[in-house]
């Protein structure tokens, strides 16, 4: 069989191409990780690649010893937890009634929700609303405006609809009302999709940046992403000023920037195995239109 | 199934005979919906109405409703702004280049992944390729600054070690655009394969077996079975992407830009931020946002129209 030898070569080529793509994805992260653990000398002489040189924990000690950074971390963890709980609660109580075909006005409610996926007031009307509601510089500015994701709502609704009607029917025979059916029948059967979407809400909130940039000016309420932006990206302008010989603040060491980046990335890497176990199935449910 | 239909028709006829009872009977369902609907009304529909300040001389103390109407005066002002045209041009330019470069790569990657026969290798590769999608733009921006710095970034250090000149990846407009596109590929190429991989699982395995019997090579099978199998998905995603040509995210251009490259990096979303939030010129910024929304809607509806012609199926 001649084609087989040829096939092996093609297999190896494909594996190498994918391997290169994987390296391309991982190397930037590995390099930042190496920078965060390296001493300043090797960094400045360009010796650090993907392995740390002269391992040095100073940068991490500085990050963890920085009260503002730790405050921001705990604030962000609290924010993410509160946001996820409220979002899931709101999404579930919206999705359940919409699975009932006999509900009067159901199609109108669905349209009312789906339209918001295509139209929005825009950045400034959103900002003015938050301002007029006196939510600027409060944690609620980061929770309320993005509380329900219409796309996730559709995913949960589709999943609820796939639960056999007979189960609810028998609970109803036993005298259960909607609240009881929701909490005792529907939710226990939906744990995988609830876990998936909780993770999605949590990751979205953890990574969210624009709303904090718009709505938060009080440094006490800076989520980690905004803190990181100020520290790593905004300091770029400062570094340029230094390079041009202008008066500017002292530059932030590269290892400290790298350690701060890792500080905000590691939580995502920790939940990533769970995320990726569920997201494909989650996306598939969403792809099947409800 | 039988139970379901029976219940459904039963409920429908009851509703018809006495519509008042539906509120009484389903009060729990309406109660559950109350808060979510209030949310959508307050945080989604009120800002849509709030966008009318683009046609008003908005005064914070009078509020949206009481401020006097000025018609298209604000838009006339917007169309006289040079920065607006630059932002509009850059939005289309970056989106178009993004489409040309970022669109084909997930297709190629998905076909390659699909050809992998070693299960663990495929799984591992997918895990790694999807990862960048979950990293925030602020972190990506920070990493880009460290990796691509002209004076001591690792990429330029490598170039220098080969005797090449350092490349100003982030500070020179031409290279900035390339950096912007490359980072887009890094962030989205792996994640973009998911939808194609899903489409690939739908291809009938018998086709491959029949091709084997006919002695077809790998390349021929890819060309004559795999590609035609995902062609509808490719076409629909292409049309959706064209439909989004006028809209651009905020985070990616914002975190990657710096004062040296605003000529190419200023896009509508960042321009609205600059005018509206940083300069507090609310009506001008709202008008720019509204203009973009209208152009975006025209693109999207045209895309849907084309999709119906080509695929006999809308994009929704």
Please tell me about this protein's structure.
The complex is a heterodimer of chains A (290) and B (316). With 290 residues, chain A is an all-alpha fold. Chain A folds into two domains: 1-56; 66-282, MetI-like fold (Orthogonal Bundle), CATH 1.10.3720. Helix content of chain A is 71%, strand content 0%. Chain A contains 13 helices and no strands. Chain A is globular and about 75 Å long. The model of chain A has no long low-confidence stretch (mean pLDDT 87). In chain B, helix 5 (73-79) crosses helix 17. Chain B is globular. In chain B, 33% of the residues are buried. Chain B is built from 17 helices and no strands. Chain B has two domains: 1-53, no CATH class; 56-311, Orthogonal Bundle (MetI-like fold). Residues 1-17 of chain B have low confidence and may be disordered. Chain B is mainly α and 316 residues long. Chains A and B meet through helix 1, helix 4, helix 5, helix 6 and helix 8 of A and helix 1, helix 3, helix 7, helix 8 and helix 9 of B. Chain B: It is found in: Cell membrane. Chain B: This is Protein lplB. Chain B: It comes from Paenibacillus abyssi. Chain B: Its main location: membrane. Chain B: It is a multi-pass membrane protein. Chain A: It is a multi-pass membrane protein.
Short recap of the structure:
The complex is a heterodimer of chains A (290) and B (316). With 290 residues, chain A is mostly helical.
CATH topology of the largest domain in chain B: MetI-like fold
**CATH class identity of the largest domain in chain A:** Mainly Alpha
- Approximately how much beta-strand content do the residues of chain B carry? under 5%
> How many β-strand runs of chain A?
0
CATH homologous superfamily assignment of the largest domain in chain A: MetI-like
């Amino acid at each position: 069989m001649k084609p087989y030898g040829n096939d092996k070569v093609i297999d190896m080529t494909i594996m190498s191409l994918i391997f290169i793509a994987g390296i391309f994805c991982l190397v930037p992260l590995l390099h930042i990780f190496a920078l965060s653990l390296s001493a300043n000398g090797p960094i400045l002489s360009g010796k650090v690649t993907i392995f740390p040189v002269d391992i040095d924990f100073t940068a991490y000690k500085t990050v963890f010893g920085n009260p503002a950074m730790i405050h921001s971390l705990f604030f962000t963890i609290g924010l993410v937890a509160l946001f996820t709980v409220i979002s899931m609660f709101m999404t579930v109580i919206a999705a359940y009634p919409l699975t009932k075909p006999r509900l009067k006005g159901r199609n109108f409610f669905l349209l009312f929700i789906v339209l918001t996926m295509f139209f929005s007031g825009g950045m400034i009307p959103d900002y003015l609303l938050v301002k007029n509601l006196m939510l600027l510089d409060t944690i609620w500015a980061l929770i309320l405006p993005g509380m329900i994701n219409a796309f996730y709502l559709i995913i949960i609704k589709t999943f609820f609809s796939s639960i056999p009607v007979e189960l609810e029917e028998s609970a109803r025979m036993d005298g259960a009302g909607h609240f009881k059916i929701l909490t005792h029948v529907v939710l226990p059967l939906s744990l995988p999709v609830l876990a998936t979407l909780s993770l999605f809400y949590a990751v979205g909130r953890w990574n969210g940046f624009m709303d904090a940039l718009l709505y938060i000016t009080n440094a006490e309420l800076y989520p980690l992403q905004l803190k990181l932006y100020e520290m790593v990206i905004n300091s770029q302008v400062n570094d340029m000023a230094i390079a041009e010989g202008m008066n500017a603040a002292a530059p932030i060491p590269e290892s400290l920037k790298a350690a701060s980046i890792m500080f905000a990335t590691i939580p995502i890497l920790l939940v990533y195995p769970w995320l990726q176990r569920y997201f494909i199935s989650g996306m598939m449910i969403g792809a099947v239109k409800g | 199934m039988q139970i379901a239909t029976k219940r459904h028709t039963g409920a429908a006829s009851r509703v018809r005979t006495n519509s008042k009872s539906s509120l009484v009977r389903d009060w729990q369902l309406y109660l559950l919906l109350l808060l979510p609907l209030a949310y959508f009304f307050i945080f989604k529909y009120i800002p849509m109405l709030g966008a009318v300040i683009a046609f008003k001389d908005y005064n914070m103390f009078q509020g949206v409703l009481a401020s006097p109407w000025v018609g298209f005066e604000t838009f006339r002002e917007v169309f006289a702004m040079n920065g607006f045209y630059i932002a509009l041009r850059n939005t289309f330019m970056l989106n178009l280049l993004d489409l040309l470069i970022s669109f084909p790569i997930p297709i190629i990657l998905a076909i390659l992944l699909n050809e992998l026969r070693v299960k663990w290798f495929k799984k591992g590769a997918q895990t790694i390729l999807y990862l960048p999608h979950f990293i925030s733009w602020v972190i990506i921006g920070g990493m880009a600054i460290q990796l691509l710095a002209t004076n001591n970034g690792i990429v330029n250090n490598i170039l220098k070690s080969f005797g090449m000149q350092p490349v100003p990846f982030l500070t020179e407009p031409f290279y900035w655009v390339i950096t912007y596109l490359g980072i887009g590929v890094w962030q989205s190429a792996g994640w973009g394969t998911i939808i194609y991989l899903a489409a690939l699982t739908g291809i009938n395995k018998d086709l491959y077996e029949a091709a084997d019997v006919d002695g077809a090579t790998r390349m021929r099978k890819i060309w004559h079975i795999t590609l035609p199998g995902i062609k509808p998905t490719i076409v629909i995603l292409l049309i959706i992407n064209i439909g989004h040509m006028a809209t651009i995210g905020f985070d990616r251009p914002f975190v990657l830009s710096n004062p040296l490259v605003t000529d190419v990096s200023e896009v509508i979303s960042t321009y609205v931020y600059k005018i509206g939030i940083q300069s507090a010129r609310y009506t001008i910024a709202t008008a720019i946002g509204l203009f973009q929304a209208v152009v975006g809607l025209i693109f999207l509806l045209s895309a849907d129209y084309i999709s119906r012609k080509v695929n006999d199926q809308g994009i929704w």
